[in-house]
Amino acid sequence: MDKSYNYLKSILNDNDYVIIALSGGPDSMALCDLLLKLREEININIVCAHVNHGLRTESEDEKVFVEEYCKKNNIIFEYMKIKSYKNGFSEKDARIKRYEFFDKLINKYKSKYLLTAHHGDDLIETILMRIGRGSNLKGYSGFSIMSNRHNYKLVKPLIYYTKDEIMEYLKKNNIPYVIDNSNLKDEYTRNRYRHNVLPFLKKEDNNIHTKYIKFSEMLLEYDRYVEEVTNNTIKKIYKDNSLNITEYLKLDRLIQKRVLDNILYSIYGDDITLISDGNTEEINKLINSNKPNGSIKLPNNINIIKEYDILSFNNNINSKVEYCKELVSGLQMNDYEFIFEDNEELDSNYVCRLNSSDIKLPLYIRNRYDGDKMSIKNLNGSKKIKDIFIDEKIPLKERNAIPIVVDSEENIVWIPGVKKSKYNKEKNEKYDIIIKYVKIRRENEKERS
Known about the structure:
Layout: H1 2-11, E1 17-21, H2 26-39, E2 45-52, H3 58-72, E3 76-81, H4 91-109, E4 113-115, H5 120-133, H6 137-140, E5 146-149, E6 152-155, H7 163-172, H8 189-204, H9 208-237, E7 238-239, E8 242-244, H10 245-249, H11 253-268, H12 277-288, E9 293-298, E10 302-307, E11 310-315, E12 324-326, E13 332-333, E14 336-341, E15 351-354, E16 364-366, E17 373-375, E18 382-384, H13 385-391, H14 396-399, E19 404-406, E20 412-415, E21 419-420, E22 433-439, H15 443-448
Helix pairs in contact: 2-7, 5-8, 5-9, 9-11
């Protein structure tokens, strides 16, 4: 076990607090013994994190065993019992609860390292399982001896050794341990690989785990390179939760996939398992669609909006606030203000001239409704507000915020800043109402000007 011992010696320092996931089984007890030996050279503080999953009656006895061992060897003992699971026991739920406990201990002791007793055989099993169910480049590598998790390092020092070598070490050093009988059953997927596939591989090559370590390291090396390229690319084409579609489509497909995966992970974090291959296929269809605008909804109320050359990732982006207010001079909306004028020489979509005899007063502003249409001047018939927004290239995320001006009979007479209706009068025509939609000047803006 010299490789594991020397690796630990290379990363630990005097006065470090080291958290070890200690079940009391053979693997974790071997790892704990290495730490005890190392403590004779380096003044480290060992903290045992023991989890009772609440599934076996023997778990209470195992807790007593580990606690007494820790007391005898001057190891800090921390304990958690899982009292219930969301929908019955699942490996995923159990792992989440375990790591919540580990994370708390890391913060409590201000530790930099969490040690687990995964070994070379575990690496083989993990790689085979992920090949079986499908994964990504990093996933197919299984796990590395050290990885980052939140604000600490997750370390697996026993990766160099097989289960048989660990058992031999325990016997040679007379180290006590307990046996979890559930590991002997083929009820769990990992156990079936362990009992049926692993013996065959070892029969072919007794040092097969070293080949898997090299395979894992090679994949991780490629993964690190792809990750570096991806991160540099994301900085150029993804800003303010928005992806430049034109630049994205120029990328190699591998980098495209990685860019999308990284963006989704930055949004979902530990909830990334909610995203399926079907979701990513939907996103790519939206990106490659000939339609200039579109949207899809993902889990956790995340909306992905395509607006011409931009793909936006946001939540509640399509939420619509219902309102209807009488339009009076001085009414403020979206950093703009409606002002009724006696005279106005300028002519733009921010100015509307109306003849009160053509409309039914009073006027109102409201949010847009699905199916809204407006009669356009010099156009035979009406046009959907949605199509007007498309023609004017109004981003989808801004459309619900744009007020619609209607008269008392629900005739749409103006979309401030966007389009005027057939009711708008030219300066040489007869009108008796002038309305301006002007940007509100804040105090700091006035000072700068």
